[in-house]
Amino acid sequence: MNQDSIDWLYGLSAPMVALNKDNGASYTSAYFIPEQDFVDLNKSWGINSRETLLNCVFDMVDDGHATLLSRYYSIYCRSSEADWRNYCQEQDDYQKVLMKFVEQTFCVCGIGGIRSWDYARMAYILRNGTTNKYITEDEALWILTKIASRSQYFYKSWHNYFAAWSVGFQFWESINNKEDFEALLCELTRASQTRTMKILISDEDSPCNRLPWYIDIEELEKPESLREYDWS
């Protein structure tokens, strides 16, 4: 695999890099923060071994926070305005808030919804897992190629991918407020992560300023060490 392809794969975690630039995070190293020898993933993620890391990644890539909204993004994309309004009216108050959020953010997320929120975080986990020697770089790259194929299918550009991540971040920060629906809607719709987005767009090392979105990603053979996992 050539270096541009490898850089592209590590670029999937670029939003997490922008969040951690001050701590030495890298867009292109196999290790998220090259100067670190170990990253504590247990406190925030419950990851303290190879098994817990791989289980987390394989679960979250397709069944993470994005699944809470994916159906609504899909329905919104396929519905006429009248059908969408009728569908919304049939939902409870909590679902109506979520659907309003989908309606307001579809223009930046598209059909992919907030999947990139999960993709970027799992790419982050993989790179830190490489640092901790829970997995090898080859294993991480193979998993990243699968996340890449999903990303290129659902998103049309780095900016699209980054914007959907930002929307996902806002959703994650706000979703615990399920009691006051008006407050929840305000939290969901306020601007978030503008500093991170500015870094991603303006940083010359950011993948959006160095690499095209639709790059050919070489299909790697699944490592023998991952054969026990029925995931691709």
Rg over alpha carbons: 18 Å
Tally of individual helices: 12
User: Percentage of helical residues?
Assistant: 55-70%
The quaternary structure here is single chain
Low-confidence stretches: none
Instruction: Report the end-to-end length measured between terminal Cα atoms.
Output: 19 Å
Structural class: mainly alpha
By DSSP, the count of extended strands is 0
List keywords for this structure.
single chain, 232 residues, mainly alpha, 0% strand
Describe the overall structure.
With 232 residues, the chain is mainly α. It has one domain. The chain is built from twelve helices and no strands. The chain has helices spanning 3-11, 14-19, 42-45, 50-63, 67-78, 81-89, 93-109, 115-131, 137-154, 158-174, 181-189, 194-202. It is globular. The two termini are 19 Å apart. The mean pLDDT is 93.
Overview in brief:
Helix content is 61%, strand content 0%. The protein is mainly alpha-helical and 232 residues long.
Strand and helix map with partners:
Blueprint: H1 3-11, H2 14-19, H3 42-45, H4 50-63, H5 67-78, H6 81-89, H7 93-109, H8 115-131, H9 137-154, H10 158-174, H11 181-189, H12 194-202
Helix pairs in contact: 4-8, 5-7, 7-11, 8-9, 8-10, 10-11, 10-12
